[in-house]
Fold this sequence. Notes:
Blueprint: H1 11-16, E1 24-27, E2 31-35, E3 43-49, H2 65-82, E4 89-92, H3 96-99, E5 108-112
The structure holds guanosine-5'-monophosphate.
Amino acid sequence: MNDPASNNPTIFGKIIRREIPAQIVYEDDDVLAFKDIAPQAPVHVLFIPKHVHIATLDDARAGDAVLLGKLVLAAAEYARREGFAQNGYRVVMNCRDDGGQTVYHIHLHLLAGKPLGHGFGG
Ligand code: 5GP
């Protein structure tokens, strides 16, 4: 198999390969989205690249710009489809230890379903 995601050693690689279950809520040619196993809000969905294994945002390069844009736009599309775009939502990408990243396959968090306030915690 030539798909680079076949070498993705993370738990998200297992989800992409359907080796472990996940509640998948959105999928297109490049992006897979599924519910976070430990939700931090009533809606907490993770958007990940399906075919490219980029460990962190710091590992992304100019050639990944379209893919990163697709992650963001997939989240926006999902929010519209599910009817909470009007009320609003938050997207977050954690990078490495200080950013709180625990799974080293780049991903976007989409949080919604309640007022999230103005802070980012710490
Ligand atoms: P990070 O902390 O790396 O930004 O986000 C990783 C997220 O993945 C966490 O919010 C965590 O709850 C979620 N997560 C970790 N393992 C699994 C899993 O096996 N299934 C699902 N659906 N989410 C997971």
